[in-house]
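Run log // design_07
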């Protein structure tokens, strides 16, 4: 009986989510962006999410001139689908509406080269690539084991080690990207204006002010404060309620 109830609830939730998504799409087409956003938010409230859902929600907020929620939802879409070209394109338009102009200081050295290489694909794609190479390694091993001539055996033997090297490289890339994904904590400023202070207390001096829509990276949390870093390397403390982390 419990299983039947669980299946019924699962089906009803899926139907409700799909219905809410389609309702949001229809409202968006009719220019009712506020109602469309509420429809999409209702789907998220049912614990259903997708890159397309966040992208559509970001579009709604962009149309409503709500820059911070628009950028936040585009970022959420990119977490689920890092190569989403539409989200990458639209987030650039949304960022043009922000007040703060933070420079991006490029990283240099071996770390940058390694990140440029592993960043070609997300960690789950690297995992699939490593599985593919592992299967290819098995094919080479079978070929080596059943080959009758010395020349063909040597070809399969050398091929095994070459493919094994690619297996190890792809596995290492997957672990590196997973570690980077887990440790990186992007957040969006939601407050219209928020002081970034030198210490995690209101009495400390204000270093600078950030405005809605600016992207920051959380490094540390202490009580109601978060230590953040900007893309130009500047650091400081901001009240937790002023920002919203993209990954939770």
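design_07 sequence
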């Amino acid at each position: 009986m419990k299983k039947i109830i669980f299946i019924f609830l699962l089906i009803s939730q899926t139907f409700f989510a799909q219905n809410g998504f389609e309702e949001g799409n229809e409202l968006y087409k009719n220019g009712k962006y506020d109602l469309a956003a509420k429809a999409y938010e209702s789907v998220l409230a049912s614990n259903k999410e997708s890159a397309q859902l966040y992208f559509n929600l970001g579009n709604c907020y962009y149309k409503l001139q709500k820059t911070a929620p628009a950028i936040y939802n585009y970022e959420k879409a990119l977490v689920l689908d890092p190569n989403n070209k539409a989200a990458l394109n639209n987030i650039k338009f949304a960022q043009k509406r922000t007040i703060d102009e933070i420079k991006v200081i490029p990283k240099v050295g071996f770390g940058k080269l390694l990140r440029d290489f592993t960043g070609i694909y997300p960690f789950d794609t690297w995992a699939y690539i490593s599985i593919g190479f592992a299967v290819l390694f098995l094919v080479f091993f079978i070929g080596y084991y059943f080959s009758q001539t010395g020349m063909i055996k040597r070809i399969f033997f050398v091929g095994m080690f070459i493919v094994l090297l690619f297996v190890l490289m792809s596995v290492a890339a997957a672990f590196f990207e997973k570690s980077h994904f887990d440790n990186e904590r992007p957040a969006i400023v939601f407050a219209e204006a928020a002081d970034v202070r030198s210490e995690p207390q209101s009495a400390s001096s204000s270093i600078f002010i950030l405005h809605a829509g600016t992207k920051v990276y959380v490094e540390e949390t202490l009580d109601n404060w978060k230590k953040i870093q900007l893309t130009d390397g500047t650091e400081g403390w901001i009240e937790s309620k002023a920002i919203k982390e993209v990954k939770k």
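The chain has three domains: 2-95, 110-183, 186-245.
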